[in-house]
């Protein structure tokens, strides 16, 4: 067992997010830029055995939770093997998906010990779904969410709330949690990334979300952990929960325990930090990458990758220097 990954602020990093691909079967504008998206050549991507090797190294450094992301992780042809390999590690395993292909992997996920998944869904209206995603998979997505619940999986729905797009559906999503103990909703503030046309004026804030929900429901805040990204709540008498991830207006950096590995094997110590360390090249050369990992987290900033506060005038151009969201891993 190696030493744990601890930064200069004393934060211990135990949660590894691995992006399997920057490709996706949807085209959500807040994640993928409208034009000039250059996908990574396949030779740049980590292969299944390399993902396993790096995951084993991180588990040896104290990681106890792994999440597979993308792009859409389930479009990789070898995702079944990857899930199987990582399911054998002494850590919890989960993934974030748009659920379009999830019906093909129920058995793989169950065999690997996966019992909870995050599903990206930003609207409950078919016309809006097509407008946001640029694809007509609304019926399939809802069907597969119901399938996951019927199969006993815990489903956490991630909704990116954007002013003028879907903020009028917030309470419709809350209503979904009333009778489903295994269904939880997370409302996410719109965040800035390269090419996603972010602006503070488009944000529906943490406080605005609570105010809107309070117009229709009585609810209580639930106890959480320091490293939680979402403040969680439950409607009085409800079965499931809802939460708010207020990255912009209510940041959770003080308890951050996250490690990000991009699909091309670059290590990021923060979602918003533009600095990266290549782990894949030295791994392929047979080198020990642990020293690189420790050094990169020793440089981690306290908040937002050392960038400007979101409210400052130059924040938009500052955060534009980062990768697209789809190239980082959601």
From TrEMBL:
<dbReference type="GO" id="GO:0006777">
    <property type="term" value="P:Mo-molybdopterin cofactor biosynthetic process"/>
</dbReference>
<dbReference type="GO" id="GO:0005525">
    <property type="term" value="F:GTP binding"/>
</dbReference>
<dbReference type="Pfam" id="PF04055">
    <property type="entry name" value="Radical_SAM"/>
</dbReference>
<keyword id="KW-0949">S-adenosyl-L-methionine</keyword>
<dbReference type="InterPro" id="IPR013785">
    <property type="entry name" value="Aldolase_TIM"/>
</dbReference>
<dbReference type="InterPro" id="IPR007197">
    <property type="entry name" value="rSAM"/>
</dbReference>
<dbReference type="GO" id="GO:0046872">
    <property type="term" value="F:metal ion binding"/>
</dbReference>
<dbReference type="InterPro" id="IPR000385">
    <property type="entry name" value="MoaA_NifB_PqqE_Fe-S-bd_CS"/>
</dbReference>
<dbReference type="InterPro" id="IPR006638">
    <property type="entry name" value="Elp3/MiaA/NifB-like_rSAM"/>
</dbReference>
<dbReference type="InterPro" id="IPR050105">
    <property type="entry name" value="MoCo_biosynth_MoaA/MoaC"/>
</dbReference>
<keyword id="KW-0408">Iron</keyword>
<dbReference type="InterPro" id="IPR058240">
    <property type="entry name" value="rSAM_sf"/>
</dbReference>
<keyword id="KW-0456">Lyase</keyword>
<keyword id="KW-0411">Iron-sulfur</keyword>
<dbReference type="Pfam" id="PF06463">
    <property type="entry name" value="Mob_synth_C"/>
</dbReference>
<dbReference type="GO" id="GO:0061798">
    <property type="term" value="F:GTP 3',8'-cyclase activity"/>
</dbReference>
<keyword id="KW-0547">Nucleotide-binding</keyword>
<keyword id="KW-0501">Molybdenum cofactor biosynthesis</keyword>
<dbReference type="InterPro" id="IPR013483">
    <property type="entry name" value="MoaA"/>
</dbReference>
<dbReference type="GO" id="GO:0051539">
    <property type="term" value="F:4 iron, 4 sulfur cluster binding"/>
</dbReference>
<dbReference type="InterPro" id="IPR010505">
    <property type="entry name" value="MoaA_twitch"/>
</dbReference>
<protein>
    <recommendedName>
        <fullName>GTP 3',8-cyclase</fullName>
        <ecNumber>4.1.99.22</ecNumber>
    </recommendedName>
</protein>
<feature type="domain" description="Radical SAM core">
    <location>
        <begin position="8"/>
        <end position="232"/>
    </location>
</feature>
<keyword id="KW-0342">GTP-binding</keyword>
<keyword id="KW-0004">4Fe-4S</keyword>
<dbReference type="InterPro" id="IPR040064">
    <property type="entry name" value="MoaA-like"/>
</dbReference>
<keyword id="KW-0479">Metal-binding</keyword>
<dbReference type="GO" id="GO:0061799">
    <property type="term" value="F:cyclic pyranopterin monophosphate synthase activity"/>
</dbReference>
């Amino acid at each position: 067992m190696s030493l744990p990954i601890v930064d200069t602020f004393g934060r211990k990093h135990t949660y590894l997010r691995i992006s399997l691909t920057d490709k996706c079967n949807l085209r959500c504008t807040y994640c993928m830029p409208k034009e000039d998206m250059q996908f990574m050549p396949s030779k740049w991507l980590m292969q299944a055995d390399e993902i396993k090797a790096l995951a084993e190294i991180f588990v040896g450094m104290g990681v106890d939770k792994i999440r597979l992301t993308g792009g859409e992780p389930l479009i990789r042809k070898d995702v079944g093997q990857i899930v199987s390999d990582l399911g054998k590690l002494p850590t919890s395993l989960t993934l974030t998906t748009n659920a379009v292909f999830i019906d093909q992997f129920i058995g793989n996920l169950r065999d690997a010990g996966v019992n909870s998944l995050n599903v990206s869904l930003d609207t409950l209206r078919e016309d809006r779904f097509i407008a946001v995603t640029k694809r007509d998979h609304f019926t399939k997505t809802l069907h597969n969410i119901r399938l996951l619940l019927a199969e006993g999986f815990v489903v956490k729905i991630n909704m990116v709330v954007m002013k003028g797009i879907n903020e009028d559906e917030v309470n419709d999503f809350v209503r979904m949690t009333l009778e489903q103990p295994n269904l939880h909703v997370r409302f996410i503030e719109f965040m800035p990334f390269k090419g996603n046309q972010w602006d503070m004026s488009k944000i529906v804030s943490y406080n605005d979300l609570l105010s809107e929900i309070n117009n229709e429901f009585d609810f209580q805040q639930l106890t959480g952990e320091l490293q939680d990204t979402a403040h969680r709540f439950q409607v009085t008498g409800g079965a499931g929960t809802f939460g708010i991830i207020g990255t912009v207006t209510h940041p959770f950096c003080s308890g951050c325990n996250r490690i990000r590995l991009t699909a091309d094997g670059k290590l990021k110590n923060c979602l918003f930090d533009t600095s990266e360390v290549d782990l894949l090249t030295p791994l392929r050369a047979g080198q020990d990458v642990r020293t690189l990992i420790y050094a990169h987290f020793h440089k981690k900033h306290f908040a937002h990758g050392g960038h400007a506060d979101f409210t400052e005038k130059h924040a938009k151009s500052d955060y534009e220097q980062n990768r697209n969201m789809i190239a980082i891993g959601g």
